[in-house]
Amino acid sequence: MFLIRRFVFGIVACGLCLGGIIFTQSLIRGNMPETSTEAAGLPSSELSEASPEEAGFSSSGLQNIEAAVEASIKDGELPGAVVLAARQGKIAYLKAFGNRAIKPGPEPMTTDTIFDIASMTKVVATTPAIMQLVDNGSLRLGDPVKRYLPKFTGGGKDDITVSQLLTHYSGLRPGFDPSREWFGHAAALEELWKEKVSGTPGKSFAYSDLNFIVLAELVRAVSGKALDVYAREHIFLPLGMTETAFQPPADWTARIAPTEMRQNAQQMMKGIKPAEYKMLRGEVHDITVWKMGGVSGQAGVFSSARDLAIYAQTLLNRGVFYNSEGGERLLSEASVAAMTSPQSPPQAANIRGYGWDINSEYSSPLGDLFSGGFGHTGFTGTSIWIHPPSDSFVIILSNRVHPSGGKNINHLRGVIANIVAASILD
Whole-prediction pTM value? Predict the structure, then answer.
């Protein structure tokens, strides 16, 4: 039996003017878990469900999402999708479309499907981990990375700061050379230490997975825990995100949306044996993360729409989440403001917060009608946009790369954002 609690927050001025939020949270039996992998009786929390009008949306407006997604499926852009829209602490729209699998046989998409969220890992696991370490005084964003990772020197890297990694203004290139043959976490670090900057730190923007590989190593160095362990103990379990993890367990497999064949995902990589070719299902799609063993800062997390909604609402609540004992804080209000307000250099064309995209060439989930907010995309076909001015967010989860690479879905992301924005009643 769910216990519903309503909390009304006054208007508080902060980086993005995160306005007053009326938050309704459904609570499920159990207390806050110990921050331990041995914790039992874990809580499972989720937003309350309501009609669109109860959440401040137009029902007829949100119904336009169906036609948009079905058209994209018909055009072969993706096999299926799950779309969630919420406002004022209420899930007003949650619907599954098409199939989560086509090969080897069709499987209908369901709203509880678990997806490889790819680069959304950067903001769901890595960024909050870093900001928690800032909150507790273990890390400073303005420090050079080499203060915490002494091997991160040479090649123009000495003056790169933690904040420049988070905003993608570090000067590092987008990723490792895919033609180089290496395997394992230790080998990846050896590649990382040899990297040279390809742009000017603090001035050149390049969306880079290398930035978040470094950030994951910062989490390990400062906290003493690998990112997957840290995120599970300090982010996912406290929030009750029970369907979110790196390297998901085998009993999740039936609900996981497959991506594509190994030979397609890694056709440029040396050292991949034909025996390793298979449809990826529950195994990370990202090439570099796969070579590193399944855990890194740029990709690797699997999650569901409901779990991501819990996290999104926590950010709208300025870092607070709720359990049966009341409100608990995941992140400081100051950290949430820093993550979600512009941190790019002055006059920069690509505006980023710490981890989050605000207005850049990657902002397709913003659409045309939302003014402001923050979000992120994932290569596999996932995205989120959170809009504090209207106290709303929209989550799109798909496996567009299934079964053999897929197509660009940026148009669909923007269309759905426009529909949701246009459906807001007040």
Answer: 0.87
